[in-house]
Structures are given as structure tokens and as C-alpha cells.
Design a protein that fits this description.
This protein is an alpha/beta fold. The chain has 14 helices and 37 strands. The chain has 5 domains: 94 residues, no CATH class; 161 residues, Rossmann fold (3-Layer(aba) Sandwich), CATH 3.40.50; 97 residues, Immunoglobulin-like; 223 residues, Rossmann fold; 69 residues, Immunoglobulins (Immunoglobulin-like), CATH 2.60.40.10. The strands form 9 sheets. An 8-stranded mixed beta sheet has the order 16-15-17-18-24-23-22-20.
Length: 697
């Protein structure tokens, strides 16, 4: 760019402002005195005074060399989802290349590219002007030659409330290069209302509207509804009408529902024809039976845990007296009720979601047929938790009954009483029940000792897993699956020590709740659970346990199924990731484990209207004198720099003009004294000597 110099006088006084004022007062007083009383050599005296004043003012010449800078044109590229469909991304790329080449051909201009929105917001909204304003803050107003926006026109933060003068001063001319094609059409499914949670066994209501840019209101259109059990059914809906559909909540945990409207022929995108909803199924009430074989401290904490959860209906019985007890007490003097074993373990057994036997022994109350019924209950899908003490290794152990068929951990006739610290086994570090127990407050298994444990043996053929170990590595927490049911065996009755904060306590609430919810088949506690997370346009998959005979497969939003391989990392966790190239529901399956995730944001500003439009940006173009151009017709558009007032028109059918830059940077500064200091001193001294000689004659 051009350079030019500017010269001016510069003053750098040797005295402060007060000193200068005092000096001027003295000089003026002297001038008045000599004017009145000694006019001889008055002119010479004034010249000498001015010489002294020049020295004090330190007068020099300031020479600045300035370089005019090229104007900056901001090129804002729309990278939102709507500007990537229907070949708009390739249009954008070509338009950007053409724009940059035309700007480079003009030496007065320089392009600065900004891209928005950020990838994390590409499906939600397009805030281009937020990015433009941020970038303009680094550019001097005199250097702002204009703004070019390459977009489909779906911009959600166009400035409002600014005058034409304010818009022109801030942005310069705003030009709009529009992607897309004429006469676009689209059909869109909008979910108006959907619950996050639903009761298991009930129907959830989903409200929706189908929008269409071609068909008139109330025209019929077909939808396909996919329910959690994998079945599909067809629904007839009406364009523009708010309607409802009911879907069954089949089970607790994740219930994915997907609704797809038939595509419109020739529409720009089918991505907004598909909507997915994930409803978390919850149980209305959990019926739990707690049977304590004898009163003891631990029984209270099992009861407190159950009653603290409003979703649990607890039935608790404590056996206070054996059926064969002989203490001489008459029956009519006892305030005890008979144990209703027939009602609980035969008539109402299947109504219980979970049964807990807390230090229960075979006291002759339950018969062998009852124990067989309990075993059938487990195999048909029931859950049983055994918290055992020394009674489990006694002759009255329930292991010596027909219940043995489903029990895990065979007694070794030994109850060991000495302090020990529970430890997580290798399986325990990976299983959801116990994973993470040794972190946080209790990092590194920093928990209290227990004081008693029974000795049991495990059978590798009995599908038993040991999650925690105790004295000398003996099994402390065992879990197992029996056909459709589950069982847990805690081989100590000392967990209440953690609850009482004996020593430093321990994570008893977390452990007890996870045991209960695993028995209730909580999906998040499944051993081979699939954990999913969305990172921008990638889905990340993690599994702590990945059996070799379970092939992980996933299904994309269009129903295409693909296999997926996991690799174990240094953290011993199995990882994989895939590109979420399509919006919608992704489902993952491995063995009995399923997981679901929705990629893309639904019913957002970004997806409200996918058809291109210049309507939103038009007011900004009018206020700044900019123009609207087609992305495919830039070859015929000429770029120019215009020396014109801000209110001028900067566009025509085949011309895109920009403001000429008025900004210059100082490249060089020189300070030169008007005369050397010794010249001033010599002149001052010479004048004073001459005046003295002249007046002394």
C-alpha cells in the first residue's frame, strides 16, 4: 500500500506547566519593564527572550511516515446443519473459493474468514453475527470494508433496532451469497410434547405435528411408529394438525420410540422426517419382602434403607421365637403373631420383586415344599439377597433345604471372628455393582474393618462371581444368575458397622442400593452394559466387560445394521467410536445388553425451516447498501472498491462493491531539533553581549 510523510512541530518542555507559566510571567514582566524604562535594544532583548523560551520549550520537528492499509472484508461461512444438506456444502466451498480469488485480485482488500456456528451447535441454531461481531472487535472501524455472508439464509441473530448509519459504520456493506436452489420443498415432523419418564406397564402420550410446504392443511400422510419391543405400526396423520399417539412402556429403563413420516417426493432432506424419543421406564412400586431370622443390629439398616425409598413397599417380618421353642410361656400370654408363611411364600410370592433373607435359618417354619417354591420363584425371574451370619454354617442352614438348588456359596462349617478389611476382587473392579466403591471419599478402599465372616466355597460351574473378598481372600460378596432370576450372597452380617461409622465407616448405602437394583435388573447395572456418549459428530462406546462370544452391533437411523469391534485400552476398558453421519436414533446391542443414543438435536431453530430464504437477512442488506447473490452465479459478479459515502449503494445485479479503507498505520517516527542546542546558547549569549556593549557606550 502507499506511504506518505507528515511533518509538524513538536514541543517537549523542559519545565513543568507551573514552571512554564512562571517563566512566561517573568518574561512578560521584563518586556513591560524594558518597554517603559529602557526602550533601547528592546527588539534585541525580545529576540534573546524568545531564544531562551525556544530552548525551554524544546521545540523539534516531528516527521511521521504512514502506510495506508488495505480494507478487511469479513467472509462469514455458515457451517450449520441446514447449510450442509442438498449439496449446499459443496456450493459453499466453491463460493468461498470464488470469493477469495476475487478479493485477492484487488490490492486494496484483504479477506478474513470466520466459520460459525461451532460444531457443538450445528444442529441447534445459526448465530453468524455473534461470530462476526467478535471478529470485528479486532478491526479498526476505518478498515472495515464490508461483510460477505455465505449461507442458506437461516440465520438466527440478525441485528435488530440499529439505524442505517449505525449498521453501515459497524459492518460496512453486507453482501449475501445464498446457497441452495429455487423452488425447494420439504416435509418435517415436529414432536410437540413427549414425557421423559413413564410408568412401566402404562402408555405414554406423544404429541406431534407434520409440516409440509407442498400439500394443503389436513391432507393425509402416513407415519411409521417403532416401539420398544421392536414392532412397527402405521398411523395416518393430517398435515398441520396437532395429534397424539400412545406407546407402551414395556420395561424399566430405556424405552426408545421412533416416529417416521413418509418422505415427500423431491424434498431437500429426509433428516427431519424422522424423530426419536427415549422414555425412561420407572416402576410404580417395588414390593420387597424382608425376613430377619433374629433381631440384630444389621436388620435395622436393611429396613431403614428400604423405608427411605418412597418407591418401595416393604413387608418386614422378624422371627422372634422358634416354632419348637420351649420356655414355658403360655400361648395366650404371647404378643406375637404366627409367621404367615403360606400367604407370603405361596399365595403372594410372585407379587414380590425382591426377597431378602437377613440371617435367616431353617427354624421349622418353612417346609421343603416352600423352599422348592422359592427356588422356582428365582428361576422364573425373581431376585433373592442372602445376608448370612453364623447360622448359615450351622445344622439349621437354609443350604440344607430344597432352596440349595439356587443358592451360591456352599458353607464350610466355619465362622471366623476377627477384624478384616473387605477388598474388591478383579471382577469387582469391573462390575457395575462394586465398580467405583473405592473412589471418592473412600479412595483406595479406605473403609472400616468388619469383624465376622463365614467361610464358603464357590463352584466355577455354578455361574458364580466373587466381587468382594474378606479374610484371607475368602468370598465376601457373591452374585449369580439362575435361569431368569438372580441371587446375591453377602457372607457377613457386619455391613452395619459401616452405617454406624465404626472407625471411618464405608460406602454402605451405595453398595446396598446397587445390590438391590442389580437384583431388580436395572439396565445401568448390567455386567456387559454399553456406555454411550456423544462428542460433536462422533458416538463414543465403552464397555467394562466384553465377552468374546458377544458381537457388538449397531443400527443407524435408517435401519442399517453394522458390526463394531472394541479395543481394550490401558485403563482396561473396551473402547470404540463411530461417526454419527445421520441424525436420529442409534441402537447398540451385544448379548442381552442394549443401549440407545440420539444424534443431532431435534425441533430446534436450526431445523424449524430447512428451505433457503433471504427474508431474514434482507433488512440488513437494505440498511447497509449490500446485495443478494446466488452462489452458483458468482462467476458473473465483479468485485470493486468504491470511494463513496457510507450511505451509498454498494451493489448491483453484477457488481459487489466495498468501502475503501481509510485506515493507515505509522511505520516510522523521527524527532529532529529545529537547531542544535549550542546554536541557541551561542545566539543567546551573543545577543546579551551585544546589548551590554551597545548600552555601555
Amino acid at each position: 500500500m502507499n506511504e506518505y510523510a507528515h511533518i509538524q512541530l513538536s514541543f517537549a518542555p523542559l519545565l513543568s506547566n507551573f514552571g512554564l507559566i512562571g517563566l512566561l510571567v517573568c518574561l512578560i514582566a521584563c518586556a513591560v519593564f524594558f518597554f517603559i524604562f529602557k526602550r533601547k535594544s528592546l527588539i534585541l532583548r525580545l529576540i534573546a527572550a524568545l531564544t531562551l523560551l525556544f530552548v525551554i520549550l524544546n521545540v523539534s520537528t516531528l516527521s511521521t511516515t504512514q502506510q495506508s492499509k488495505e480494507g478487511i472484508v469479513l467472509v462469514a461461512v455458515d457451517e450449520s446443519y441446514s447449510n450442509t444438506i442438498n449439496e449446499r456444502d459443496s456450493q459453499t466451498t466453491k463460493a468461498l473459493q470464488d470469493t477469495l480469488s476475487k478479493i485477492e485480485a484487488l490490492p486494496q482488500l484483504k479477506a478474513k474468514i470466520i466459520r460459525a456456528p461451532a460444531a457443538v451447535n450445528k444442529y441447534t441454531e445459526t448465530k453468524l453475527f455473534k461470530a462476526i461481531d467478535k471478529s470485528l472487535s479486532d478491526i479498526p472501524p476505518e478498515q472495515r470494508s464490508g461483510v460477505i455472508i455465505i449461507s442458506d439464509g437461516n440465520i438466527h441473530d440478525v441485528p435488530e433496532g440499529l439505524s442505517a448509519r449505525e449498521m453501515q459504520q459497524k459492518y460496512g456493506p453486507i453482501h449475501f451469497i445464498m446457497t441452495g436452489k429455487d423452488k425447494e420443498k420439504d416435509r418435517r415432523l415436529e414432536i410437540k410434547k413427549a414425557p421423559l419418564y413413564g410408568l412401566k406397564g402404562t402408555d405414554a402420550r406423544i404429541e406431534f405435528i407434520v409440516h409440509d410446504t407442498v400439500l394443503p392443511l389436513n391432507s393425509p400422510v402416513r407415519l411409521t411408529l417403532s416401539t420398544p419391543d421392536g414392532s412397527k405400526r402405521f398411523i395416518t396423520a393430517q398435515i398441520g394438525k396437532r395429534q397424539s399417539v400412545y406407546v407402551p412402556i414395556e420395561h424399566a429403563g430405556t424405552n426408545p420410540i421412533e416416529i417416521v413420516v413418509d418422505p415427500l417426493k423431491g424434498e431437500i432432506s429426509q433428516s427431519n422426517n424422522r424423530r426419536a424419543v427415549i422414555i425412561q421406564g420407572i416402576r410404580d412400586k417395588l414390593n420387597v419382602l424382608l425376613v430377619s431370622g433374629a433381631p440384630h443390629e444389621g436388620g435395622r439398616y436393611w429396613r431403614n434403607l428400604m423405608t427411605s425409598d418412597p418407591a418401595i413397599e416393604l413387608v418386614h417380618f422378624t422371627i422372634l421365637r422358634d416354632i419348637d421353642s420351649k420356655d414355658g410361656t403360655a400361648r395366650n400370654e404371647m404378643a406375637l403373631i404366627p409367621f404367615p408363611h403360606k400367604q407370603l411364600f405361596h399365595d403372594q410370592l410372585n407379587s414380590f420383586d425382591l426377597i431378602i433373607f437377613d440371617r435367616y435359618r431353617n427354624q421349622g417354619i418353612l417346609q421343603q415344599e416352600t423352599y422348592k417354591n422359592l427356588a422356582r420363584y428365582v428361576r422364573k425371574g425373581g431376585g433373592v439377597l442372602i445376608a448370612s451370619g453364623h447360622e448359615y454354617v450351622s445344622p439349621k442352614s437354609i443350604y440344607n433345604t430344597a432352596f440349595k438348588d439356587v443358592l451360591i456359596g456352599s458353607p464350610n462349617k466355619d465362622s471366623i471372628e476377627r477384624p478384616f478389611k473387605p477388598h474388591l476382587s478383579d471382577q469387582g473392579h469391573m462390575h457395575p455393582i462394586t465398580r467405583g466403591l473405592d473412589s471418592g471419599q473412600f479412595s483406595g478402599e479406605n473403609w472400616a474393618n468388619w469383624l465376622r465372616q463365614i467361610d464358603v466355597s464357590t463352584s466355577p460351574t455354578n455361574d458364580e462371581k466373587v466381587l468382594m473378598s474378606g479374610i484371607d481372600g475368602r468370598p465376601l460378596l457373591l452374585i449369580g444368575e439362575k435361569d431368569n432370576g438372580r441371587i446375591i450372597h453377602l457372607t457377613s452380617d457386619q455391613i452395619w458397622l459401616w452405617a454406624r461409622e465404626y472407625q471411618q465407616g464405608g460406602p454402605y448405602i451405595d453398595l446396598m442400593r446397587k445390590m438391590i437394583h442389580w437384583l431388580l435388573k436395572e439396565p445401568s447395572l448390567e455386567e456387559g452394559q454399553i456406555e454411550l456418549s456423544l462428542d460433536q459428530d462422533q458416538i463414543k462406546i465403552a464397555r467394562y466387560i466384553n465377552p468374546g462370544d458377544e458381537q457388538l452391533r449397531y443400527t443407524d437411523p435408517e435401519g442399517i445394521e453394522k458390526p463394531l469391534s472394541l479395543k481394550q485400552g490401558a485403563d482396561k476398558i473396551f473402547h470404540a467410536q463411530i461417526d454419527a453421519e445421520k441424525q436420529g436414533l442409534y441402537s447398540f446391542n451385544a448379548g442381552k445388553n442394549n443401549a440407545y443414543i440420539i444424534a443431532g438435536a431435534y425441533d430446534t431453530l436450526e431445523q424449524t425451516n430447512l428451505i433457503r430464504s433471504a427474508e431474514i437477512i434482507h433488512p440488513a442488506l437494505s440498511l447497509t447498501g449490500g446485495g443478494n447473490y446466488e452462489a452458483d452465479e458468482l462467476d458473473d459478479v465483479q468485485f470493486k472498491v468504491k470511494k463513496a459515502p457510507a450511505t451509498a449503494r454498494f451493489s448491483s445485479a453484477r457488481t459487489m462493491s466495498f468501502r475503501d479503507s481509510q485506515y493507515a498505520e505509522i511505520s516510522k517516527v523521527d524527532f529532529t531539533p529545529t537547531l542544535p542546542l549550542w546554536v541557541y546558547l551561542l545566539l543567546f549569549a551573543g545577543l546579551n553581549i551585544y546589548i551590554w556593549q551597545r548600552e555601555s557606550r
